[in-house]
Amino acid sequence: MNKIESRIQELRRELELHNYNYYVLSNPTIPDREFDEMMKELERMEEEHPEYAGPHSPTQRVGSDLSKEFEQVPHRYPMLSLSNTYSEEEVRDFFDRVSRALNEPFEIVAELKYDGTSISLIYEKGLLVRAVTRGDGTRGDDVTANVKTIRSIPLKLRGEEYPEEFEIRGEILLPWAEFDRLNKERTEQDEPLFANPRNAASGTLKQQNAAIVASRRLDGYFYYLLGENLPADGHYENLVFARTWGFKIPDVIRKYDTVEGIFDYIAYWDIERKNLPVATDGIVLKVNSIQQQRNLGFTAKSPRWAIAYKFQAEQALTRLNSVSFQIGRTGTVTPVANLEPVLLSGTTVKRASLHNEDIIRELDLHIGDMVYVEKGGEIIPKIVGVDVEARSLLIGDQIQFIKYCPECKTLLIRPEGEAAHYCPNESGCPPQIKGRIVHFVTRRAMDIGIGPETIEDLYNAGLVKNAADLYALTIPELLGLERWAEKSAQNLIHSLERSREVPFERVVYALGIRFVGETVARRLITVFHSMEQLQQASLETLTEVNEIGGRIAQSILDYFADPKNRQMVARLREYGLQMEVAEEKLLDRSDKLKGLTIVISGTFSRYSRDEYKEMIEQNGGKNSGSVSKKTDYILAGENMGPAKLEKAAKLGIKIINEDEFLNMLAE
Ligand code: IVH
Asked: Are 81 and 32 in contact, with CB atoms under 8 Å apart?
């Protein structure tokens, strides 16, 4: 194989991997810009050496987000992407190219480039008939049921002036505020966080359960109309029409006939975008006249009449002092860069995520390197490059990914096809053991009044190696430790005592079985009324439970297959924890609230919010977080929020207090 052919092969392999990370795993591992540069290099090489071009090269497709569970449908018009530019020169080149090719006056529409996941909607006779993801550009997933839950997307158009049949494309977005709320909730529930709103949006859209989609309050912004009988020849004018049909068309779109006007727009939004409720990553420029668009046509991958200009993410340059490797509760190894503190977008950055081995290798990192950190849409900053020029002769060692767990010295594993390393020593690796105990005692699990530091002390003293050991603790043992007094020791013993009353569903959650969060635990116990039943469940009986898929079921089977886990559960039983659904709860079930959606708001005196939530569900009702037309009642306590109150009044929703609610159940 000659040099050229091997470089082409290498680029294809790399690009395929990144395509997979981005579209299938929703977990991109390199900046878009680098990806684009690699793609450009490959395109150039294939053009110059057509003997090596082929139908399976990544240059021949536009990425795939197909997943098994949804029905795949063909796009009437292929969903192409835009070519990206990063400089004003390239924008000027585009403008000049269009000008030369058309050789007549033209207008350019400037829009924001929204950073979500693209969607195509088909409307017939004013009704939404289908919503399809981009997929591989020619076929996508039919996600109509999920899209219908997005409140800003019209199911039925307004007015009568719309074409009989058309397609509209846009972006599904998770607003920043929702993104923050979701991640806060996930922190509390010990679930992995979303890296950015785009991943959260595409992940949500691919949920099998439309109710979860609805609870996440996605939004849809639209920017492209397609069809045979559109109302105008101008792209801009068509969007203005579409706005009157009920679509959310951003009102920041503008028309320009000079390149200077476009530069002003770019400069303005580069700053102002920080105040928008949703993520944007650039500007899109489109020739306005559809006739002129047709004259310009398409390349294999993108239109010649449009480009994207990508904003430069804010960066800072600082020194890499060291790299540490952290082990999570489930054994995942996370490499973390320790940096010389530096100010970036208003906060001081001391650490950055390095994600995995491939990224470290790609960056060719050395201790002491000056590195560029970037915050983009992510919460955790990342290293995007090294200032190689700044390297001196005194440069430190190249960073190597560790082979053994830094905590328990077990050989790490990297499962085939995955980027992450794991420590497989579940039962002997200290951070994994401590992490599971920390989870066990959290407020929403067993609610035992101790924190991570105390667990660290108890573990180090050799007193506690798993959750069951907590119940064997004695006051003299505790008093033998540093910083423990009679009072605190008694408190812990009382707290443990009280936890024996914690209901069964929270005991199931507290075990920390992978993928078994609070919701899953609650579902499981509706079918399996005791730990014994759960322990004996088969793959079939587990997957029969509403919303429990193969992945969760397998994880439960694996958990109980381990004799150490079975033994610990047996000890917890001996210590008197709730191992079955309380009898009165089984009796408490009814259909009294069947079909009713109830929103809980404010603070209560008789029972807690969680208890009310449970009562609603136990009696066949649905508890929802936000007031809408679908809400039947608001169960209001003290200090109900004014926004909710106003909305309820506007929609004419009945507000009931605690007593009225309890009466409904007693009737
Ligand atoms: S127009 C043929 N306009 O960027 C042109 N796309 O790389 C179709 N995007 O897949 C796209 N904001 O998901 C267009 N104002 C905008 C956009 C936009 C975001 C996304 C879209 C598309 C990708 C193109």
From this structure: no
